[in-house]
Amino acid sequence: MTIKEKGYSHWEGELAEKKLPWWPITRFGIRSTFRKKFFKFFFFGALLPAVVFLVGIYISERLEDFRFMIRNQTNFLTVDPGYFKSYFTGDFLLFMMVAILVFCGSGLISDDLKHNSLQLYFSRPLKKGQYFLGKASVIFFFLFLVTLVPGLVFFIMKLIFAGNFKFFASYPWLPLSIIGYSVLVTLFFALYTLFLSSLSKNRRYVSILIFAVYIFSDIIFGIFYGIFRSPYFALISLKVNLQQIGAFIFNQKLPYSIPWIYSFLIIFSISLLAAVYLKNKVKEVTIIK
Amino acid sequence: MNPVIEVKNLSKWYGNVLGLNDVTLQIEPGITGLLGPNGAGKSTFLKLITGQIIPKIGTVSIKGKKVRNNYPLFREIGYCPEQDSFYEELTGKEFLLRLLSLFPYSPPEAEAKAEQALEIVELTKEKDRVIKAYSRGMRQRIKFAQAIAHDPEILVLDEPLSGLDPLGRRKIIRLIKEYQKKGKTIIVSSHILPEIEAMTKTIILIHQGKVFAQGDIHYIRDLIDTHPHIVSVKCDQPRLLAEKFIHEDFVLNVKFSPAEDSLLVETDNRDKFFSLLPSLFIENKIEVQEITSPDDNLQAVFDYLVGK
Amino acid sequence: MSIEVNDLHFSYGKVKALSGVGLDLEEQAIGLLGPNGAGKSTLLRILLGFLSPDEGEGKVLGYDIKEQQSLIRRHVGYMPEDDCFIPGMDAVTFTSYFGELSGMPRQEAMKRAHEVLYYVGLEEGRYRLLETYSVGMKQRLKLAQTLVHDPKLLFLDEPTSSLDPQGRKEILELIKDISSKKDIQVLISSHILPDIEAVCSHVVILNKGQIAAQGEISKLKELKYRLYEMKVKGEAQSFLEKLKKMGCRIEATEDMILKVYMRPNKNPQEIFRLASEERIQIRHFVKSQSTLEDLFAKAVGVD
Q1: Which residue of C has its CA nearest to A285?
Q2: Which of A102, A257, A229, A196 shows the shortest CA–CA distance to A240?
């Protein structure tokens, strides 16, 4: 045999464009999120409503078995689009989503800015869009796990528990609503988080911002609404805007009597501004100083 | 010559982190190069002799006077820190003026001194720009300017050349040498050994918080007995030359270069070796191109004393 | 020919950064020098495919700098000047991560990461979190991620910045090893001339967006006249007298070096004949060259 000499040896292989060039970024993002203290606690907390609602669906089909528990209330637990809407737009779920964002999203760009890693990313054949996609997919992953996935599971479970397609026949558009709303909320939160994450080099500030902007927009709305009694102040609150859109998508009565399209426009323009800002903030060429 | 700076049994630690460990030395006028690995205690040493921090044990005196809290003495010290420490919103000139206003100068005097310092570091054109907008080289230069603006007797420079381009380095090295000619005392630290060599032959080597060597580079090299001297001779017939001295007992080792155009000789007695060499060339008609001592320089001294 | 560019022009708005740069580099180790603002960064940005030149064309590793920018980046390695890493990773994850982003299959990237980490001497710290790395280790790590996808051309930006003498020497030895033995080409941009001299055989000096000088360092440093530098030991008085009689001009510098100008018709071996007659030790003898620093200063038009 030949001896192997100490030192550098070449790699025998071909470098090629991959189907998902950004996937390693996402994989690392997901993995490092799970490694964080308390994350699992919050994550399972965020899955709690899903469990409760799933049990609810089961009970609704077996209502007869549980009749002894309830008296007089005949209209208890009907699973309809309203049921889905109350899952998706529940205060608790939205709050837990923001908590998840703090864990998985606060460091996504701010860490790269702090430790100059953009230089390493962009000296590879990675485009800016792919970089952002890789980062955003971390958020997609976690938020889909608490929105899209439970939503579709509910729907399927409902069919399974019922043993027939009556539910599907009555609301054929419901799966589309589930997908549409999940995608919209997730996209918005992803852009919101990435934008805030690119504002500071310190992930702690970003964490505080992610929380504070969400909470304070709601509190300010509450104060103004209390004083002026005008539903239009609801447009200030991120939470209410999302709830308005959710109510529309699931074909339910809007919580505030203002057109849903206003809320949509606000959410849409925040997302758009965030995207434009990100595009200008991160420049490939600046990696060489 | 009288030592300008005298340091006795100086020790400093931060919590349980060692900064400096029992250092005693004297520094004379002229340029002294301060070197050592990262974390060896160089910056601690420079801060101690400029009275910025208090030693745990030991004393520092400059010209026989204690440094600690001796404000009149501080006027004679110029200090250029390693890190950037600026009021970023000020312009270069304002920055110098504010620092000069700490000295008892009249406003026109301070103005003149600021202008002069700016001119020395060639920042006159950029003097009205805010420091925030300065490039790395310009920041380094304004830092140097504030150290020399009050024309101090003692100049303490912590990595003054980092971040400068070759022209900037050349310029600052020349400035430092000019200061030396005025009889001032300059202590300069750097990681780039050839630059230290370009400025001075006198060094202090700090390692593990202690002084490992102080004095002239070649003198220090001669003191290192564990490593025999290496002489490289580039000539047309290296093997013939080797044959002529291989039997001498002061020759410890002979190596040929891969290109067969030179040989490396290890010797423990350079005097005997070099006395023999010229006659060997002449007797054997060997044509010499070069005689050098590859390990008689600062890098070798550093490696032998600090290296693993 | 791995870097071949022709008549590159580039300006940022009204500021002209490059005006007519042409290069044809095939040497193993090339130093890219220039004062601040000479256009070094702009040239690197174009060579790495981040900017497209206003005028001129060229190829890097055979890929067009205007059309195949991302292919260039796939096949070269770039080591940035700044301290950079990703928190929460260990060295193996970090190195294989960037291998994957360059287009290596995951398993291969993992194997290769270990290999290059061994090569740069980080085998013991491989599984440690990068946050705990020292300056010197981070520098090696940066080199490892540059090498992981086995590029044929490396761009190194100030590879020794912020290193202490020991670390500097070790990194330079690695770079020298890569460029001399491993058919990998290295382009080093640096302000530290002794480093360039230690590693590179060839330099390109930029000034004001143009090439001020380029070529083999040893050739550029050669002097036209015959000047020797010596250090002697012993009673040199009569030795020097005799040298002067031969027609040599002698100058002593402050650090005890004698500079001897020789007439072209005299043989330098005469010096040794005299030395052996006079029992003088010649401890140092070289044909004088200009330093890279002088060369640089001359090229950019400063005294």
Answers
A1: C50
A2: A257
- In order of B264, C9, C41, C189, C205, the CA distances from C36 in angstroms are 40, 18, 9, 12, 12
C131-179 per-position pLDDT tens digit? 999 989 999 999 999 999 999 999 999 999 889 999 999 999 999 999 9
- Tell me whether A10 touches chain C (CB under 8 Å): yes
Shortest Cα–Cα distance, B289 to chain C (Å): 7
Per-residue model confidence as pLDDT tens digits over B147-163: 999 999 999 999 999 88
Q: With an 8 Å Cβ cutoff, are A116 and C83 in contact?
A: yes
Could you report the per-residue pLDDT of C286-300, keeping only the tens digit for each? 888 888 998 999 998
Q: Residue A68's pLDDT is what? A: 64
Secondary element (H or E) of residue C16: strand C15-25
C chain contacts of residue B295, beta-carbon cutoff 8 Å: none
Q: Which of A4, A6, A15 to mutate to test the interface with C (most CBs of C within 10 A)?
A: A15
Find, among A64, A254, A231, A226, the residue nearest to A161 by Cα: A64
Shortest CA gap A130–chain C (Å): 11
What's the whole-model pTM score? Answer: 0.88
* Domains held by chain A: number: 1
Contacts of B181 in chain C (CB under 8 A): none
CATH number (domain holding residue C105): 3.40.50.300
Domain that holds residue C134: 3-218
Among C218, C252, C271, identify where a domain stops: C218
Whether A218 is covered by a domain: the verdict is yes
Any chain B CB within 8 A of the CB of C293? yes
Q: Which residues contact A268 (CB under 8 A, 6 or more apart)?
A: none
In sequence order, which residues have a C-beta less than 8 Å from that of residue C37 and are 6 or more positions away? none
